[in-house]
Structure formats: C-alpha cells, structure tokens
Amino acid sequence: MELEKPPTRVVSLVPSLTESFFDLGLGHLVVGITDYCIYPEERVRLLPKVGGPKNVRPETVLSLNPDLVVANQEENTREVIEALRSAGVRVWVTFPKTVRETLQDLWSVVRMCRADSAGEILLNLEKSLEWAELAAADMVTRRYFCPIWQGETDSGQHWWMTFNSQTYPADLLTLFGYHNIFAGRMRRYPLEADLGLAESEVTGERDVRYPCVTLEEVLALSPEVILLPNEPYCYSVADLKTFYNLFGATPAAVHRKVKLIDGTLLMWSGTRLGKALALLPELLS
Predict the structure, then answer these.
(1) Judgement on whether residues 59 and 187 belong to the same structural domain of the protein
(2) Count helices and strands in the chain by DSSP H and E runs
(3) CATH number of 113's domain
(4) Model confidence pTM above 0.90
(5) Tens digit of pLDDT for each residue in 266-281?
C-alpha cells in the first residue's frame, strides 16, 4: 500500500504486527490493538482494545480515528475489513506464507511510515536469516508433526489440525532442518471428508492449508519429532502423557522427542522472526 503521507494513528488487528511496530521504533503510532496483542507487555497494557482478531468491533476501531488499520487475511474476518473500508478507513491486509514474505511486509511498514532508521534493524534481521539458510543446507533432516488444534467427532474419533508446506511455520521450520510430514496434505471440506468419512465438497475460496488428520495418518507417516506449541491450542505438560500414549509407536515417542514449544516463535511472523532464529535451534535440538 502506498500512502501519500506517513500514518500517525495506527490500529493493529494482528498481535505479531503490533509487536513489530514497537520493535521497529514505531510504537508511538499505535493507538489501538486487539485483546491478544500482548507484546511488548509494558507498552501495550494501557492501549485501547478493539476486541479479538476474529471479533473486532468496527465501531471501536472507528472511534479511535485511525488513518491506517493493519490486518491479516488469516487472523481477521472479511466482514470487519470491508466494514472499515466502507467507512473510508485505509486497511492494509497482510498474508505472509513464507519467512521471506514476512520480511517484505516489514519493509512495507518501514516504507509506509518513512522510518528509514528502522531499516538497519531489518538489515540485521536479513543477515540472521541468511546465516540460518546457509546452515540449513548442512543439517540432518528431521520429520515432524505439529498439531495446532484438536477435537473429536461425535463417534469419539480423535483428530488434529496441522499445517502444510504453504504456511509460515512450515517454511520457518525448514531453516532448522525440519520436514513436515503433512507438507503436501490439503484440507478437505467438510471435516468428515477431511477425516475420510464422507465425500469432499468443492473447496471454493476456503483455505486448504490447515488439514485435520487422524491418528492413523500420523502413525503411518512415523514422525521423528512431535512439536506441541502453546498456541493457537494451548498444549501443556499435561498433554505430554496423552501424546506418548497415543503415538507410542512413532520414532518421536520411542526416542522421547515430543516437545513443548513456545507457539509465538512458530506462528507469529514479523519481527518475532528474530527471536525464532535465535531461540529455536536450541529449543529444537
């Protein structure tokens, strides 16, 4: 998005972008955030809240008189974005599916805000990424399964939502030698079809990057590592025993490689990429 002049009142509907504005020295522009924008804690605590990413209150956003709203195609609803645009508000919608696209979005922030001084931060982040890409070429590949949600059918069948290769977390994990066992798996609709219990509908515009998989599918692909992030589903120590029991036949369970991990390092794009590049190698080792 090209703006005639830099924004002075920004409402962020994306937690990772809220953090990014502050990390880039642009936090003074942010006048409103979502309930889930929690970083940096000491800076965002008192900012006005406009609801959750999926249930933003357009009237609250408009009351803050923003000259730019930053949103995300996955995290925010089309209805809210269209309502804000209909009210004459500029809405910038991001949709990074790779690490490189995340960097492009950050450079867009710098350009829109005419924040040349923040460019040095991004140059350093790009250098860190280049080092990680070079190191990845020599890494031993590990095959992983990473659930991000779970549930049961009416008949009691367990299922887990995961992501395929067309997503930011999958692209990020390749930097550390991790190969997604569901890289090529597409989501089918409705849920029963995704679980092999019914015929598939025409997908249309629905997102196919987050398949729901069965116990049998995971066991058949034998992951060497199982990663349990604490968001969007909050996996905790209490879930470890369940996963070791259910997936006991996999190399991940046999070799005690079921790992709890900070979900923001995997799922949040933006400047948190720097923290991911610094912390994930040790957490995954």
Answers:
(1) no
(2) 13, 11
(3) 3.40.50.1980
(4) yes
(5) 999 999 999 999 999 9
